[in-house]
Design brief:
One of its GO terms (molecular function) is transferase activity. Keywords: Transferase. This is Aminoglycoside phosphotransferase family protein. InterPro entries: Aminoglycoside_PTrfase (IPR002575), Kinase-like_dom_sf (IPR011009). It holds the Pfam family APH. It contains nine helices and ten strands. The chain is α+β, with helices and mostly antiparallel strands. It folds into two domains: about 90 residues, Phosphorylase Kinase, domain 1 (2-Layer Sandwich), CATH 3.30.200; about 210 residues, Aminoglycoside phosphotransferase (APH), C-terminal lobe (Aminoglycoside 3'-phosphotransferase, Chain: A, domain 2, Alpha-Beta Complex). Strands 1-2-3-5-4 form a five-stranded antiparallel sheet, with helices on one face. The chain has a three-stranded antiparallel sheet with strand order 6-8-9, with helices on one face. Strands 7-10 form a two-stranded antiparallel sheet. A hairpin with a 7-residue loop joins strand 8 and strand 9. Helix 5 packs antiparallel against helix 8, helix 6 packs across helix 8 and helix 8 crosses helix 9. The relative contact order is 0.14. The C terminus is likely disordered.
Length: about 325
């Protein structure tokens, strides 16, 4: 079903849920927060309805929802742990949370984010928790690149960098277990944080679509990649890393160089970011912007200096 046809029905789901929870709903126009094929999100009052990606496994999503409900001090809890079918999608409803202001980088909650991830990594997974989908998401981005821009000159260094990675980082083999498999978010970035309730509430992680068990280093990989590409200032990276260590996060050692653990996941996230950027630019018929080009340039450097397979679980 197309996103355009899905939005009205999703809006009705959010509206019904909001009205059922309040005797007097402060009604206003519903707002579409995201309208993509892989995720459509609509807000009505203080309720958000999300249509999950097509072909989402209902059993796996149910476990992921139960995890969020069981960890309300870390993850924003859903309003129900049973997804509802809507056409060819599964729909869940959530309380609305105030997102990070991405236009004001000085207020980015790096310490809160790192602490939440460390706490998540320290919690035992529920029975039957599926693997986190970080590597699979990177692989899908590369597949999209190949389908969208197979002859693009920008794609060449991205694909070269991809093929320098070990098979587990390309989702071709299971992620090795070096004794640090934990509960992971699977797709962490600043857009996965909201304050709830209201604007001064505590920060919580959102979006459980990729949550599962795996190597916790993957959750640190995107900030690490941004730092390595020059897109995250050294002091912000230090704040994030210091807070994660202070919260006893298991992804990296308490002291010393973290890059023997972070290098390969960060490279995979760099490729994912570059592949997605090229695909989106090609589909929109626009040139790459400076930030997108900087990530592609990083892939070019990565392809020339393959990773040393010192990440312990890659041995």
């Amino acid at each position: 079903m197309t996103v355009i046809r899905l939005v009205p029905d999703l809006t009705r789901a959010a509206t019904v849920t909001a009205h059922a929870r309040r005797s007097a709903c402060p009604c206003g126009e519903a707002v579409t927060l995201a309208a993509r094929e892989d995720a459509t999100v609509v807000r009505h009052a203080d309720i958000v309805a999300k249509a999950h990606p097509p072909n989402t496994d209902p059993t796996e999503l149910t476990v992921r929802l139960a995890t969020a409900a069981a960890l309300p001090d870390i993850l924003l809890p859903p309003l129900t742990t049973s997804p509802a079918p809507l056409h060819d999608r599964l729909v869940t409803c959530w309380p609305y949370g105030t997102p990070v202001d991405l236009q004001d980088p000085d207020t980015a909650p790096w310490e809160a984010a790192a602490t939440l991830l460390a706490r998540l990594h320290g919690r035992p997974p529920l029975p039957h928790t599926p693997p986190m989908r970080g590597p699979a998401k990177a692989a899908r981005a590369v597949e999209r690149l190949r389908a969208t821009a197979p002859t693009s000159s920008a794609a060449t260094p991205v694909l070269r960098a991809w093929h320098t990675l070990p098979a587990w980082a390309r989702a071709e083999t299971p992620m090795p277990d070096n004794g640090t498999r934990t509960l992971c978010h699977g797709d962490f970035h600043l857009g996965q944080l909201v304050r709830h309730p209201a604007e001064q509430g505590p920060w919580r992680l959102i979006d459980v679509d990729d949550l599962g068990t795996g190597a916790p280093a993957w959750d640190l990989a995107r900030p690490a990649a941004w730092y390595a590409c020059g897109l995250l200032a050294p002091d912000e990276w230090t704040r994030f890393l210091t807070a994660y260590r202070a919260a006893a996060g298991p992804a990296i050692s308490a002291h010393g160089d973290p890059w023997h653990t972070l290098d390969i996941p960060a490279r995979a996230l760099t490729v994912q970011t570059a592949a997605t950027a090229i695909a989106k630019a090609t589909e929109a018929g626009r040139p790459l912007d400076d930030i997108e080009q900087s990530v592609i340039d990083a892939c070019d450097r990565m392809a020339s200096t393959p990773p040393e397979l010192t990440y312990e679980s890659a041995k």
